[in-house]
Please model this.
Amino acid sequence: MSEHLAIDGGAPVRGSLLPYARQSIDTNDIAAVVSVLEGDWLTTGPTVATYENAVADYVGAAYAIALSSATAGLHAAVYALGIGPGDDVIVPAMTFAASANCILYCGGTPVFADIDPRTCLVDSEDIESKISERTKALVTVDFTGQPPDMDAIRSIAQRRNVKVIADAAHSLGAQYRGRPVGSLADATVFSTHPVKPITTGEGGIVVTDNELVARKVRTFRNHGIASDARKRAQEGEWRYDMEFLGYNYRCSDILCALGVSQLKKLPSFLARRREIAAEYDKAFSAIDELEIPARSSDVESAWHLYVLRLHLPMLTVDRGQVFRALRAEGIGVNVHYIPVYWHSYYQSLGYKKGLCPVAEREYERMITLPLWPGMTSRDIADVVSAVCKVINAYRK
Ligand SMILES: *Cc1c(COP(=O)(O)O)cnc(C)c1O
Model:
């Protein structure tokens, strides 16, 4: 007999919900923020450049530009690469909506590519088959923290003369064939939302080796005005010129101070994430109803997400029921992602279900387990015992 599930009135594994992700903030982070609050520059001050230089050094890129979010960074990158009305941009269906929305912001058309069923990363053959005369760029997504086959994708891009924007919201600190994410695309965008590898509360950062792209992103962030207010004040200059229609997408010194402090801890965050993923692998690899995340020998993942896949024919219930049962046990599971074009807005634009059958099929059996650096061994044990309890109860 299986244990009585909490969803059926039994005792839950945990009394309080374990979140699927959470920031790790310590006293050094707090002191860094306080010191900016006590200083002269809350925004457009010197800490922005300190943070940008630290990130550029870390990922081996020539330029880094901090913005108010990765969404703003994606918008800026798409703009800087010259995408506009009439241009197609290929983007995987298995991602967060922001990866595709940035194309729409600039008047371009997202063309969805399907995923490889083993890795759930974008399928480079499907990219190639969807490139046409209208294609100007590709957005790649480092889903769960793993870059896709960037050498193959870049060689397609070079041959077909299209640009590559890497949505690396999940993958600050990841590596591909020994090279850091941030050095693999024309522009790479990281997120520092609290669930992501490091946090600034809200924030994004664009890195590139292309000076012109860097300049455009920097100007785009500041209304389309190239000079900043602090420089003008220092130089006793009042004139400025707005070159194109930009936005206020700046990141404040308060947030950048947090970023500098968080970046120092990224190696330890990554190590802890890797450790937790290894514990999950060990616990779940022997359970026939579960498929653990595929690993590629080319990739050192940042382990933003741990996505289990269910072998649904071996279970009496669907993913929705497993999800609800785990929530009832106190485990804050999540699902990443609903295929982007299934959202009603994309449906209203005319995208039809069935476009990317692999992404649609895999989505139905995915479930994201809690994974964040501050998880205790007790938290990990609770996740393992809740997953085993629920799978035992719903095994055919
Ligand atoms: C989180 C996320 C974003 C957006 O990041 P924000 O910093 O919240 O704007 C974009 N793409 C992917 C894949 C993400 O997971």
